[in-house]
Amino acid sequence: MRYFETRKARIEIIPMIDIMLFLLVFFAMLTLRMIPSSGQLSKLPTSSTASALPAPKLLLEIQPNGKLMAEGAARSLDEVRVLIQQKDASRLSVTIAGGEDTSMQRVMDVIDVVKTSGVTQVGLAARHPNR
User: Radius of gyration of the chain from Cα atoms?
Assistant: First the structure.
């Protein structure tokens, strides 16, 4: 009779492979999402017309004391100019972030350096007032 025959046990690995692939994709996407948002600023100025932009290729942060941060290190305006010139400035998108108490003159100095370096895509970081 067929009911009483012993069958050899099988280990199904296809579901395990599916789960491992899902975990790999999940952690890869999570890691990629964390890289551009490594900034220090927590109190951005608000704007009712703020809209989401794609992740910047270069994030310039203006600290409250006027220090300029780029790629995790303090930089001068000349160092930022050299950094931009090392990259393809025509396709580079730069986002400038500063706190509520950042000097407008310092923001304009940074914008001038970025524009004279050949960058055409410049954005200012802001947060929506309802968020």
Answer: 24
Pairing of strands 58-62, 68-70: antiparallel
Dump pLDDT digits (tens) for 86-101: 887 777 888 888 877 8
Q: Report which residue type is found at 112.
A: D
How many angstroms separate the first and last alpha carbons of the chain? 69
Query: Taking the domains of the chain in order of start, what are their residue ranges?
Result: 58-124
Residue with tokens 């996407």: 29
Q: How many residues does the chain have?
A: 131
pLDDT tens column, 50-59: 666 665 678 8
The correct CATH number of 58-124 out of 3.40.225.10, 3.30.2320.30, 3.30.300.20, 3.30.420.270 is 3.30.420.270
